[in-house]
Every structure is written in C-alpha cells, then in structure tokens.
Amino acid sequence: MTTPDSPVLRVAGRPVGRYVTRPELPARLSPRPYLHPVTTLAGTAVTELSPADHLHHLGVGVAVPDVEGFNFWGGRTYVRDQGPTELDNHGAQRHSSFQLRDPDGFVEELRWIAAGAELLRERRTVAATELTDSAWALDFTFSLTNVTSAPLSIGSPATNGRPGAAYGGFFWRARKEDRAPDVFTPNADGESEVHAHRADWLALVGSTWTLVFAGATEQTRRDPWFVRTGEYPGVGSSLAHAERVPITPGDTLVRRVVTVVADGRLDRGGAAALVRKAVSL
C-alpha cells in the first residue's frame, strides 16, 4: 500500500521497492530515508533493514560517516588512535518535499541536520526502469550542496586512520544468505580483488539474484568500490577513499549510480550486457 511517507516504486505495474521518507529510528542509527524492501521482478528481496550484524544498515540510500565530524552513517564513529567509539555526534537526513513523484520514480529534497543546524541540502533523483522480463534498473543520483557559510569536508574511517574502510556515499545493504555472494568486476573476482578498486561496474551474485552496480558519471567512476561479502553483503561507492572531500559554501557534490536488479545468477557477459543497456537509457 502506498502512503505519503512510503511511496512504492513500480516497474511494468509490479512493485519493486518501497521508499520510506520519515523512518522512526533512534538517533544513534542516523535516521534517513531509505529504500526497503527492494525486490527483483519475480519478488525476491535483495535488501535488508537494520540486520542484527549492523542495525544502522538501512536498505538502499546515502550514508556518510563523517561530515565535518558528524555521523550520518549510524553506529560508532572511528576515532584516530582510539578506534570505533560511541559519540553523541549523529546527524539525520530529513525529507523536505517531493518535487516530482511518479510510480516509476521521484525527485526529492532533503536536509542534512546535525546539532540543530543544516549542513547540507540534498536533491535525490530515483528512477526505476524495465530492462528485460527478468531485470530492471534503479537509477540513483544524489546532489549535496553546502548551505553553511564555511567550508565542509566529507571523510571516512579510512581518512581517519582505519585502512580499507573508506565507506560513505551510496550504499546498498544486500540480502544475507547462508552462503556469501560472489562478487566480480570486468577484470577481477572476489572481495579482496575488487574492494577499494575502481571499475566501471561491479556484480554481486546471490543464490537466485544478481545486482550489478555502475558509476554512471565520470566522477562517480573515479570513486573506488567499497565491498563486503564475507562479513555481510554490502556494496557502496566510496566518496572519501584516500583523503577528505571538501565542499565549499554553495558548491555541490554529485554522484550517480545505476544498479541492475536481476533474477538469476548472471555471469560476466550477462552482467556487462545489462549494464550497458541500463546506463544508456
């Protein structure tokens, strides 16, 4: 059922994702809008919400662990020379309005609030498109504008001293199954070979489903992938991989990720073909 606070995305008349705009969550989870459940066209769920291993993983959305010291990811904050630490520094993404809303997508305005002040204003554009009778594409763009009078910067645990943990940006918490999913890019296989590397696309393959993620702009393709399969299944595009990313007052950071959601286990050729179709639409 569609409600004002949780519109449903549809492809060829079939529901494929629910978007929750005003979740009721504790502050330490960094409340934010998210897509969950997201499903294949056959109805298989390919997201998780607040799983026991990471309560702050919320389906599909945008999460950043360090915006000028504020946590918009949820959970503990990585502190240099100290490690993961519970801090009272959580921010929240607040839905302001839909500029456009259709069954197959929307344009949304959000405010990123921390310590009672607005740091960033976001425009989020989401569209769902049919690719074949067993695959569809989620086109997800976010634009973050610094609305303060001072420079802001985006960081990650990696830029704060934790090697290999450059998460932050677009993030998809996938379905956890008995067996870890396979992962590959055009030229590499396995978590250790694809994590923290750049690639035009990356496929995550579960028991009966496949997700193929692609950076759809030149700037997005410059961001390395953040990948987990063994500990939990999750894929993101790393905004702050090696150094903090500055946003001066009035400037805007934009990223666009297109994700193929397919029934079945795609091989490298099948993943590449669907990505080409999805990104060209």
Can you count the beta strands? Answer: 20
Shape: globular
Mean pLDDT: 97
Strand content: over 45%
> Cα distance, first to last residue?
29 Å
The radius of gyration over CA amounts to 18 Å
Report helical residue fraction.
under 10%
Tell me the number of helical segments per DSSP (H or I, 4 or more residues long).
3
Low-confidence stretches: none
Main β-sheet description? 8 strands, antiparallel
Q: Helix-strand pattern, N to C?
A: EEEEEEEEEEEEEEHEEHEEEEH
The class by helix and strand makeup works out as mainly beta
Going across the biggest sheet, name each strand in turn: 8-9-10-11-20-16-15-14
Topology readout:
Blueprint (H helix, E strand, L loop, with lengths): L7 E4 L2 E7 L13 E5 L21 E8 L2 E3 L4 E3 L3 E3 L6 E11 L2 E10 L2 E16 L2 E12 L5 E4 L13 E5 L8 E3 L6 H4 L6 E5 L3 E7 L2 H5 L2 E4 L5 E4 L7 E3 L4 E12 L4 H13 L1
Antiparallel strand pairs: 1-2, 2-3, 4-5, 4-12, 4-13, 6-7, 8-9, 9-10, 10-11, 11-20, 12-19, 13-18, 14-15, 15-16, 16-20, 17-18
